Amino acid sequence: MRSITLQAFGAFESDLNWSSSNTRVESNGKTTDMYLFNNKIATKDLTTGIVQISDGGYDMSSTTKERLKPFASVQTKKGDVYCNDMLWDGNWITVSGRMALTSSNGNTRWSARVV
């Protein structure tokens, strides 16, 4: 998994504002949202903890799949997109079983493990 994906997911899980290159995370006290090229691809309701993902309104790119890796298994097979092995149209869906992140020595580098 790419470093930028791990950093973005760490900020998302910690409800922190963060930005690098084409990806940013914004938290406003009600939701935490992840954006790729200014298109929202993940959102978390801070009251309920419910997390939802989408393709951002565009065909699934390899970069979008990469950024969504910590949230779910997103794959393309024969032109169809699957999320956790179920056919997916890219519209908002609720996900669970996300990765947990741990920092090493308080650095901004993150490693991930499935919970």
Number of domains: 1
Would you tell me the structural class of the helices and strands?
A: alpha+beta
Q: What is the beta-strand fraction? A: 35-45%
What's the helical proportion of residues? 10-25%
Average pLDDT figure: 87
Poorly predicted ranges (pLDDT <50, ≥5 residues)? Answer: 107-115
Largest sheet: 6 strands, antiparallel
What general form does the structure show?
globular
- How do the SSEs run, as a string of H and E? HEEEEEHEEEEEE
Main β-sheet, spatial strand arrangement: 1-2-3-4-5-9
TL;DR?
This protein has 115 residues and is of the alpha+beta class. Helix content is 17%, strand content 41%. It is built from two helices and eleven strands, in the order αβββββαββββββ.
Question: Could you name the key traits of this structure?
Answer:
single chain; globular; 3-stranded antiparallel sheet; 2 helices
How are the SSEs ordered, and which strands pair?
Layout lengths: L2 H12 L3 E3 L2 E5 L3 E6 L2 E7 L5 E3 L8 H7 L5 E4 L2 E4 L2 E2 L5 E3 L3 E5 L6 E5 L1
Describe this structure in words.
It is a single chain. With 115 residues, this protein is an alpha+beta fold. The chain has one domain (3-95). It has two helices and eleven strands; from the N terminus they run H-E-E-E-E-E-H-E-E-E-E-E-E. It has helices at residues 3-14, 62-68, and strands spanning 18-20, 23-27, 31-36, 39-45, 51-53, 74-77, 80-83, 86-87, 93-95, 99-103, 110-114. The longest helix is centred in the first third of the chain and has 12 residues, at 3-14. Residues 107-115 have low confidence and may be disordered.
